[in-house]
Amino acid sequence: MILPCSVHTNKQGEELREHGTRLFPVACYLDVLPGDEIPWHWHNELELGLVVNGMAEMELASVKYRLHAGDGFFINSNILHSVSLPDGGFCEIHSVVFHPRAVSGSTDNIIWQKYVKPLTENQGSPGFHLTSGTEWHRQALAGIAGIWRLAEQEDYGYEMYIRNELSTMIALFSEHQAVGNKRSFGKEQRDNARIKEMLAFLQANYGKELTIEDIASACSISTSECIRCFRATIGTTPIAYLKSYRLQQAALKLQLSTDKISAVAESCGFQEMSYFAKSFKEVYGCTPSEYRIGK
To answer: Domains, the chain, ranges and CATH?
Structure first.
């Protein structure tokens, strides 16, 4: 079964949605942008994706990738990430989110101990940008496409075939993961903890008037340290992130509600309608009213 994309997080920015079921913790999603905006978040599960149409920009920890049609990605466990459109336009992504136990079952076997555990605990290897120019990447891309077909058709035995494909990819990612920094401690780990706190604060309070001082106070640091942490971790400033998140939430409300556009703007922290309309068009390529009609 293919599911529509949606991201709901708790106060720590951790995604709340259950992916698959307890018996088979694997889920496939159709992500269509603009529309299915994917803000910064994280989850315990692993994620695979394949761009089938258009182009998107994925930010993974502090690294940014341009994803073209035919490209794919792997996101490791507990890694902050987001996906957006770089210059307006359109993008369609087939994604697969799965819990590690979908491959290993329990934790008392060699599959978990030799392959899954070292990979999921390796914060020095947040993920991969998969392209057709590398042989093992092509194998992974074919695996993602294969899983999507199996989930779509749900023929007899599809769960076993999906598990086989996932096992093959875990072996590939485990073999090619970054070495020498299997577990991240110190400054990088501290920055990740801080950014999760500040993102959670922003996502809970984006409709209010906020300053950099407010954001920094969410984890008791200075404004300069707040700015440094944002730049080092997700490659932007706190205010730029806040504006982007507000626009994403406004787009979602335009789809799901019949509220006046001015009310949507105000609820998302935009006090001036002209500024909201201009900012919205810069990102989505149309006015808020045109976006609502188009949806």
So the answer is: 2-176 (2.60.120.280), 187-294 (1.10.10.60)
